[in-house]
Prior knowledge:
There is one protein chain. By secondary structure, the chain is an alpha/beta fold. It has helices spanning 47-58, 78-90, 92-107, 124-134, 177-189, 223-241; strands spanning 5-14, 17-26, 33-39, 62-65, 112-122, 141-145, 163-169, 194-199. An 8-stranded mixed beta sheet has the order 1-2-4-3-5-6-7-8, sandwiched between helices. The longest helix has 19 residues, at 223-241.
Amino acid sequence: MASTIKTEDILYRDGPLNLNGFAAYEDGRSDRRPGVLVVHEAWGLGEHAIERAKMLASLGYVAFAADMFGDRRQVTKREEAMALIGDLRAHPPKLRARIRAALTALSDMPQVDSSRLGAIGFCFGGMTVLELARDGADVAGVVSFHGGLETQMPAVAGEVKARILVCNGADDPMIPPKQVEAFEDEMKKANADARVINYPGAVHGFTNHKADGSIAPGILYNKSADEQSWAAMRAFLGEILGE
């Protein structure tokens, strides 16, 4: 018998900023389950992240899609998106505080086993969960899908507690090979458990069905990379969270 997925909006805060996250989990269960944070792309918390949260819930996790911009703000113009994420990227402590607020909201949910937490993110969200790992957050692991790998605050040896999986488009013009190499070097120096999978033929945004190249030729859905990376994530989360 298929389980019923319950969804709800959860209000939380980062200092004075009002945030509106989206939670999804199997209804009718009394046990506490592993929690997985989901971080949206540069467009804000919308359909893509919500769909992935529901998919995680169907796998038995309690999923919480973070709101990184406040009041569940969404944008449609690239210039607006770049301005929003640019401010957070330029101020890593601000970005890390924002994602930690979401992690706390997830951890505080009564359905969640707070000793078993993970995080996944897409594009901007992928970069964000890597910052969470670099910040030494108490998460078992993080998964970045076509996320930026650069940072202004590199990981410090001994401080990264999370295992890291990076699912990267091998032909992503926004994540050139030198950026991948620099990230791998950073992780090695930090003694972090990090793995990068490069998907041939895939570019930026390869998990988003609506990425049709209209925003930029280098932002395009790739069915094979989407399915393979999701399978890799499932195996990774199953190993680190035990669900």
